[in-house]
Write a structure and sequence with these properties.
Two copies of one chain form a homodimer. By secondary structure, chain A is an alpha+beta fold. Chain A is 34% helix and 20% strand. In chain A, strands 5-6-10-8-9 form a five-stranded antiparallel β-sheet. In chain A, a hairpin with a 4-residue loop joins strand 5 and strand 6. In chain A, helix 3 runs antiparallel to helix 13 (448-465), helix 8 (284-295) packs antiparallel against helix 10 (336-348) and helix 12 (394-416) runs antiparallel to helix 13 (448-465). Chains A and B meet through strand 8, strand 9, helix 7, helix 10 and helix 12 of A and strand 8, strand 9, helix 7, helix 10 and helix 12 of B. Chains A, B: This is FAD-binding oxidoreductase.
Chain lengths: 516, 516
């Protein structure tokens, strides 16, 4: 597979000409006035990548690359605004060195070198950040610390169902190493193919499970983190009450406190029983109430994805004001009784079962994993296409949803002219849902990044004003900073900042993310 | 009810003469040589409580008490070593002022007064610490900050099933306020009657549920914490990925980073369906394997308490090498199918169902809540009676259990002469159990604190050396410090210490606990 330098994922996985044509036709059906001219990416060799300003010490030279193409491919994540800037050939900040440690000692040595010179270091997993998490958005020379060579499952404890895993392993390589043992992490963010365990941990990624272990946080038994102040390793424990959790300080620290090099992760057996159903609703408010009833039932479905009308039509072709995709799974026992009870709850709220066991999980999963490729195909055609997400309590959802969609539609009308907003729940909790929004709007080539930034500001303000979080699982990075700074309690910000000073006294770790 | 000044709970709940006689007879059956002479507590009025060294400012005088009896009742927690020191009339450090804030502003004003003078402040909930968490074990004058007047459920969100609750409310008063709304926190630590929400949060208390929400951490939606650097309030969110969790820094901070004044807590509906079973095993190792199978099954029992032979006999009269008490509950649906599958798993490992629906939960709960009263009755009779607890991964359990019981029995033989060690699991996880040990040993009056301290050192060393945590849910306090300091990663200690300096620059909050 060949990693795309400008867009999502692998070149071989991009939409075929036929798929692209169908996508454009579907999109043109609701945006007939849009200009779908294709803007192909420039060749990276033609781009003016500035020369590296850093010279690694001889002992570290074997780990360091200053190749322009290598550095360019580490310059940005894979948000819409990253992809479009690539398409436009806009080279901005590029790391001066890409360093690829092969051992924990290499990480220590590289951090030592950078601490000594005050050189910013950006820990890099799979580079799939959609929030500006890996971009050196500052004038100083920077090192991109690519953990990709630390990619081994080192140790497996079959009894406790856990494994010690190096942080740089990508999703598929991780699962390939676990499969012979009959185990799986079963953590599938949309970026699964193009992101790493360390990236998931550093950003508190959201995964496969719609309930219970929604974030990767709960799958962590212990962490090993290299900081400029030394190596922090927590004990492998199933649970503990010994002071504030050390792991919870590093989970979500986004490379600002240290470099996660290893983790003991809790694993699952492969599910033997799976049951699924799709339930349609004539009224979205009924669908929300049914979903809440399931979230509060103690049944804990593996999937509980409520699609609104636009989302349902675009993704499944179903016409319904709400479409709930429900699935239960188990490695231990049949789960029909679980689904039966959940369907009683949906029936109580006016739901109609449109399929049971019908819709294939692998079909949905494959479509889910390919969504970012569709985004890129439309981005090339001057569309403003991006997602944003949040979480709120159930009592706040109706007003938040109304405010967010109103703000989005008003901004689309003003900034773009025409477009649609879609919504689905990716995860649900007893006390609230995690709504995930998509925007498909007409843009003007050369202006779509600015158009998106305006849209994003409008919806982010609506989220903050209506009780949401600026991110449920996309993390903060640089793009969410203005709203994160307002969401976070000030005393906690002071405490976190002091903790960072203790661990990273030279202030080299991922500057601009979360903190200074 | 009248709170005991020297021992656990309320005087009216202490063992009756008849119950005491039966307990002594049961204990004498396995410790026939022990001297069971009763040592009654002294009158607190006869104890030499030193005069207060602090004079609160006039504006705060109405909140402050310097009454010797009041101060004496805030001087210690309720560990065995606290109770015996009370029985012996040993007055050591006593807080100089007991302050009872009536509002958050009072808390701010009290912290301001103490910060200005550098006066240590010990946040006090119900005073039931068993780890020296509330004892001013230092020479400086101290204020005990008793939150008991902040005892209201302020706001209820029925839709999201959550409530905003003041931290000083005791368990029963909290449940009484929730009951009219058909809701419950359903968090029942053994101290339920004599401890507060704020205490549970500050110490990461373990509650009712044997699986899933074992610690109170997972029931927290948001926290409001008064620190000397200002008030920290997190957003009410069902889930978030915006940086490291602010709440997880305060959960388990044991009064060292701030004073928790309020929390939005996730609630449950009252369970309508409950099924229970007791399963006996001829071999303890089979019982452990069966319990592990259930913990890893995804069935999530509410109770999953494995008693060893001594624990089973002492608590239920059943003779078995292992006795598993299992319960499922739901407010939404019958759970017979869940229990049926769990019993298939126990049968696979040689378990025999001895009762189904038979054993009453309220009987066990009542016995559970009265255990500390039994400890006190035996403590008066020169017994060394105390519990300690840990958690470890399943692969480590066998060796940890062997090491801990060997260390305990060797220490009992050497230090006490005779005694028994018991074990039960209080909580279980897919990757490991939380074993809870009891020691009943003969002591010599006047020496039992020192004897316990020696025993505790021996078992704590065995726990640390064999992969356990120094505490699963009793917290760290002052008593666990030597082992906590070794368990905690050094860089995390540095980060936590820096965070404390930022929030509590005068270093007044609960000195000696967790940190300096």
């Amino acid at each position: 597979m060949t990693r795309s330098w400008w867009g999502w994922g692998d070149l071989e996985e991009a939409l075929t000409a036929e798929e692209t044509e169908a996508l454009v036709a579907r999109t043109a059906a609701f945006l007939p006035a849009h200009d779908f001219t294709d803007h192909a990416p420039p060749s990276p060799d033609d781009l003016p990548v500035p020369p590296s300003r850093l010279r690694p010490p001889a002992a570290l030279a074997r780990l360091c690359s200053t190749d322009p193409a290598d550095r360019l491919s580490h310059a940005r994540g894979k948000a819409f605004r990253d992809v479009v800037r690539n398409l436009e050939g806009r080279v901005e900040a590029v790391p001066d060195v890409v360093a690829r440690p092969e051992s924990e000692q290499d990480v220590l040595d590289l951090l030592h070198w950078c601490s000594t010179g005050g050189t910013p270091v950006i820990p890099y997993g799979g580079g799939s950040s959609v929030v500006g998490g890996i971009e050196p958005r500052f004038p100083a020379p920077a090192v991109s610390l690519d953990l990709g060579r630390l990619d081994q499952v080192v140790e497996i404890d079959r009894t406790s169902r856990a494994a010690r895993i190096q942080a740089g392993v990508y999703g598929p390589a991780l699962e390939n190493q676990l499969r012979p043992h009959g185990l799986t992490l079963r953590h599938y963010p949309q970026s699964f193919t193009h992101s790493t365990l360390g990236g998931w941990l550093a950003t508190r990624a959201g995964g496969h499970f719609a309930t219970l272990a929604t974030h990767i946080d709960d799958l962590v038994e212990s962490l090993r983190v290299v900081t400029p102040a030394g190596v922090s390793e927590s004990r492998r424990l199933p649970g503990s009450g010994a002071g504030p959790s050390p792991d919870r300080m590093f989970l979500g620290s986004e490379g600002t406190l240290g470099v996660i090099t290893e983790a003991w992760m809790r694993l699952q057996e492969r599910p033997q029983w799976q049951v699924k159903a799709s339930i349609s609703f004539a009224r979205y408010s009924d669908a929300v109430r049914a979903t809440r009833a399931i979230a509060q039932s103690g049944l804990y479905p593996a999937n509980c994805r409520l699609l609104d009308a636009a989302e349902a039509f675009l993704n499944t072709g179903v016409q319904a004001d709400g479409l709930l995709l429900l699935a239960f799974e188990s490695a231990d026992h049949p789960v029909d009784a679980w689904l039966d009870r959940a369907l009683e709850l949906t029936a109580d709220h006016g739901g109609t079962v449109t399929a049971r066991r019908g819709e294939s999980g692998s079909a949905w999963r494959s479509a889910f994993l390919r969504m970012p490729y569709q985004r890129d195909a439309l981005a090339r055609r001057s569309m403003v296409v991006e997602t944003f997400e949040t979480a709120c309590t159930w009592d706040a959802f109706e007003s938040l949803h109304e405010a967010v969609t109103t703000a989005a539609n008003a901004a689309i009308a003003e900034i773009c002219g025409a477009g649609v907003v879609t919504c689905r729940f990716t995860h649900v909790y007893p006390d609230g849902p995690a709504p995930y929004y998509g925007i498909y709007a007409t843009g003007r080539w050369g202006s779509t990044v600015a158009q998106w930034d305006e849209l994003k500001t409008a919806v982010s303000e609506a989220i903050l004003a209506n009780g949401g979080t600026i991110t449920h699982h996309h993390s903060v990075g640089r793009d969410h900073r203005p709203w994160y700074d307002r969401q976070r309690p000030d005393p906690f910000a002071a405490a976190l900042s002091a903790a960072k000073d203790a661990l990273d006294p030279a202030g080299i770790l991922n500057p601009g993310v979360l903190l200074r």
